[in-house]
Every structure is written in C-alpha cells, then in structure tokens.
Design brief:
Arc Repressor Mutant, subunit A, 37% helix, elongated, 7 helices, 2 domains, four-stranded antiparallel beta sheet, alpha+beta, four-stranded mixed beta sheet, Methyltransferase, Cobalt-precorrin-4 Transmethylase, Domain 2
Length: 215
C-alpha cells in the first residue's frame, strides 16, 4: 500500500467499506466506525483525508495512531481485529490506514467511556454508521450460516406475507399493528424470519425495514 494506492482508494469515495477522517479528534466516535465495519463486512478507515477526497495528511501521525489504538483497547468489546499502516504523503506528512476485518463472532460493541460496563452495537449502511436496533443486534448474535433455522408458518406469518405482497417492506411498528401483536411477539417473529433467510433486515436511523429475501 502506497500513496498511489491511497489516491485510487480515495477516488472511490466514502461508502459501505470506506471511511475518511481528517484527524482523530474524538477517538470514541472513530471506534464506532471500526466496530460498524467489524459487525458488517469489514472496511477501511483512512485518517488524514478530508470528506471531499483531499489528502492533506497528518504532521504527527504517531500521535493520532496512539490515541486511536488506546481507544480501541479501552472501548471495544471484544477487540476489533485490524491491520494498519502509516503511509507517507510527503516528506513531512503521512496518512493512517486501518483495514478492519469482519468479525467471526458478532456483535462487537463500542463503549462511550472506558468506565462504562456495556457498549452499543453499530453497523455500516452505505456511507453511514448506525446504532444497531435491538432486532439487528439479536440477528448479529444469532446468525449462523451453517445452521438451518426453522419456523412455524402461522396466522401472523400469513398476515405478514400478505402485506409484503402488496407493500414490499414493513417496519416492526407496522407489523405489530396489522397482526395485533405486542412488541416482543412481533420482534421475535421478524428476527426468526430473518434468521431463516425468509426476510432481510435493512437498518435505518429511525426504524429498520424488513423485506422478502428474494426481492
């Protein structure tokens, strides 16, 4: 990896697997980005790059690297696995490159402070890092591609499929209303159908969407 490779990467723009940071001003926020990559399909973080794609670099990259690695050790539960490089931009400046691997055991959590007992799970959606909903967190925890998840097709599943046949997507709130279920029942039904590969979940900032897997 050299500066030419970095320029090619930056030209792609921020997205599902790429995030730019000018500096490590708030390490705890950057940790969330790395946790989100690990909880999804991995990704790269470049520090010393502006959102607009300019590459000013860092005059003291080691200081930023130290701050971020300290935050990773203290705030990630469990630790994020990554590889990193310091890549020169000029004689005086460099950028930091972190390649985050998709975690084998999910979810990973990011704490706001080292003294916190629990953290929050985050996922990557396009160029955004989102806090995982309760449903998304359970799906990450229970998803196992090697296992076939079975479910019972009953009245509530029939109501759901009939709705999706007309509307394509549904929220937890909408499912509760049309099927007259409490929040727990509706949530567990949707989770089970995602685990069985009947539905897929689309994380959103306000409320996740669920749609048929074969759409």
């Amino acid at each position: 990896m050299n500066i030419r490779d970095v320029r090619d990467l930056v030209a792609e723009g921020e997205g599902q697997h790429l995030e730019f940071k000018r500096k490590i001003n708030y390490p705890e926020k950057v940790v969330r980005e790395m946790v989100a990559f690990a909880n999804t399909s991995g990704g790269c973080l470049l520090v010393g790059v502006d959102d607009n794609g300019k590459i000013p670099g860092l005059r003291y990259p080691e200081e930023h690297d130290y701050a971020l690695k300290k935050a990773i050790r203290e705030l990630c539960v469990p630790a994020v696995k990554y590889e990193n490089l310091i890549i020169p931009v000029s004689d005086e400046k460099s950028i930091l490159y972190y390649a985050v691997k998709s975690a084998k055991k999910k979810p990973l959590y990011a704490k706001d402070q080292s003294i916190d007992k629990y953290g929050k799970a985050y996922v990557r959606v396009n160029d955004k890092t989102l806090k995982a909903s309760r449903e998304m967190t359970q799906i990450l925890r229970r998803k196992n591609p090697s296992k076939n998840v079975k479910f019972t097709y009953g009245d509530k599943e029939g109501i759901l499929m009939k709705y999706l046949d007309k509307h394509n997507r549904i929220t937890l709130k909408e499912f509760r209303e049309i099927a007259s279920l409490n929040k727990f029942q509706a949530s567990q039904t949707l989770i089970q159908l995602v685990l069985a590969d009947v539905l897929r979940i689309i994380p959103k900032e306000k409320e996740d969407l669920f749609e048929l897997e074969n759409i």
